[in-house]
Amino acid sequence: MDLSAINPVLLIASLMVAATPILLAGIGELVAEKSGVLNLGVEGMMIVGAISGFAVAVETGSPFLGFVAAAFGGAALSLLFILLTQVALANQVASGLALTLFGLGLSALMGQNYVGVKPPPTAQLQMPLLSDIPVIGPILFNHDLVLYLGIAIVAAVWVALKFTRAGLILRAVGESHDAAHALGYKVVRIRILAILFGGACAGLGGAYISLVRVPQWTEGMTAGVGWIALALVVFASWKPWRVLLGAYLFGGITVLQLNLQAAGVAIPVEYLAMSPYIITILVLVILSKDKSSAPASLGKIFHASH
């Protein structure tokens, strides 16, 4: 066992990369749930985003176009959820589960020709003076644009929900769709936009896995990240900064257990691989006592005829 092989600077920098897919998917789902919609199809939207982004990046040679395609791919799959839940008024839980199963199957079909293909590398954002700062530079200022975009989206969602009229309307729809409808707000339209935003964020998160975190395509490569993102929103009590914190916690434990495996720690590999999920669930259980934060209309069907 050689713990000296673990570089703390590299560990924290890797943590930010590992956390980004969960962060993007989580913040998108938070906005959807704030509007009163429970979309369990996050995993499906992420994996479709992963293959859409990967395929476009490989064919065009541009990771940027890949990420754009991934956002569109995730949003396109969320249209199916919109059709089921907002138009046909189907059960949201069943529709979300169906979306995940459909997404996993569709991505396997789309990705048949991309197994073993290497995508073009995603460029790091150059910050000449900042990235040269000892310790802090390599940790904070030596990443790609999408990682910073994820943090910026969290900040933007926090500002929008807390300080803007649009955020207030979104929260009003999530708390009581009937009251919001009575005040003249277009409940279905607001929810559709929130679901599309959630789908685009999940797609981006998926592409971050296939283009940056593990630059390759393998079937089912999201490996439960979408489900962790869903749990994260609850553990975060629907607060954007807590989603960031939770994503970094999960990402940190994931990276740490991989480093411990490499260092030859005398703990069975299976236990180490389980640890991110177990610790996240424990934190979730401890913090989920704060049930008052859940939007009151979450998962309820809105009938426009009311």
Q: How would you characterize this protein structure?
A:
With 306 residues, the protein is an all-alpha fold. It has 12 helices and no strands. The termini are far apart. InterPro entries: ABC_transp_permease (IPR001851). It is a multi-pass membrane protein.
Task: Tell me the overall shape.
Answer: globular
Query: Secondary-structure element order, as H and E?
Result: HHHHHHHHHHHH
Largest sheet composition: none
Cα-based radius of gyration, to the nearest Å: 20 Å
Question: Which band does the percent of strand residues land in?
Answer: under 5%
Kindly report the average pLDDT value. 90
End-to-end separation in angstroms reads: 66 Å
Helical element count?
12
Task: Indicate the low-confidence ranges by residue numbers.
Answer: none
Structural class, by secondary structure, is mainly alpha
Counted beta strands: 0
Helical residue percent band: 55-70%
Brief descriptors of the model:
306 residues, mainly alpha, membrane, single chain, ABC transporter permease, transmembrane
Write the layout of secondary structure elements.
Elements: H1 8-34, H2 42-60, H3 63-87, H4 92-110, H5 136-140, H6 145-163, H7 165-175, H8 177-182, H9 187-213, H10 225-235, H11 240-263, H12 269-287
Helix pairs in contact: 1-6, 1-9, 1-10, 1-11, 2-3, 2-4, 2-9, 2-10, 3-4, 3-9, 6-7, 6-11, 10-11, 10-12, 11-12
